[in-house]
Amino acid sequence: MRILLAEDDALLGDGLRAGLRQHGFLVDWVRDGHAAQRELRAGVYAAAVLDLGLPLLDGLDVLQRVRQANVATPVLVLTARDAVPDRVRGLDSGADDYVVKPVDLQELAARLRALVRRSHGQPQEVLRVQDVSLDPAARQVTMAGEPVALSTREFDLLQTLMLNAGRVLSREQLEQHLYSWGHEVDSNAIEVHIHHLRRKLRPEFIVTLRGVGYTVVRPPGQG
Predict the structure, then answer these.
(1) Splitting the chain (223 residues) into consecutive groups of 10 residues, what average pLDDT does each group show?
(2) Domain shared by 41 and 59, yes or no
C-alpha cells in the first residue's frame, strides 16, 4: 500500500519511513504543509500520516483544505499535541485517527491497515475473495487453504485488487498504487505481475476488460 508521510522532523521522518517500509508500506515523504496538500489532492494514496506542526501550512489547515476539496484519503494525525481540545479539533477537521507521539511502529502500521480496510468497506483484517485469502499484517496468501508464495510486488498488486473487488482498475491506477517516487516503471510491468499471479493462483481469478483494466470478482453473497 502506498501512503503519504508528512513530517518535518528529519530524524523522526526517516525512522517512520524506514519502519513503515518494513511493514510492507510504500512511503512518499514530504516535509511541509504545502507539499502535503498538493500530494493529498493528487488522490493516489491509500492513507496518509500527517503531522500537525508542519512549516508553511499547519497540518490542521492541510486537513481542512483537502476535506473541503472532497479528498477522501484516510488521514492519521500523528502529533505531539496531546490535549483533549487538540484531539477534538483534529477529528472535527476530518482526521480518521489521532495518535500522540511517540508511537509504536507496530501500532501505527496496524492503525493504517485498519484505516485502509474501513475506507474500502472491508470489516475484517483478512481479505477474502472466492477461495483466496490475503492477510495484510502477516503478508500471507492462501488459496483453498494452501499457502501461495508471492513476491513483494505480486502481493501488493493482489492486495490492491482484492481491496477493490468488483471495481475495474486501469494499468495507470495500479501503477500509482504499486510504485512510490523514484521508481522507474516498465511499460509492461503490471501485465507481467498479472501473468505471474494468474499462474500462481488460477487464470480466471483476475479478469481483464480489454482497453479498460483488471478486476477480481466477489461471488454473490460473499461479504
Answers:
(1) 95 96 94 96 92 94 95 93 85 92 93 93 90 95 97 94 94 86 72 96 94 90 64
(2) yes
The grid cell for 155 is 502481493
Q: Which cell numbers hold the place of 140?
A: 500471507
Picking from 119, 139, 155, the residue at the C-terminal end of a domain is 119
The beta-strand segments (E) located in 62-101 are 75-79, 97-100
Please state, as a whole number, how many other Cβ atoms lie within 10 Å of the Cβ of residue 85: 8
Domain boundary among 119, 146, 173: 119
| Domain around 173 | 127-215
Please name the amino acid found at residue 200.
K
**Sequence-ordered strand ranges (E) for 58-157:** 75-79, 97-100, 127-129, 132-135, 140-143, 146-148
Residue 56 lies in a domain: yes
Q: What is the pLDDT of residues 81-103, one digit of tens each?
A: 888 888 888 899 999 999 998 88
CATH code of residue 141: 1.10.10.10
Count of structural domains within the chain: 2
Distance, in Å, from the CA atom of 185 to the CA atom of 179, rounded to the nearest integer, reads 8
> Beta strands 47-50 and 26-30: pairing type?
unpaired
User: Per DSSP, which regions of 150-215 are E strands?
Assistant: 207-209, 213-215
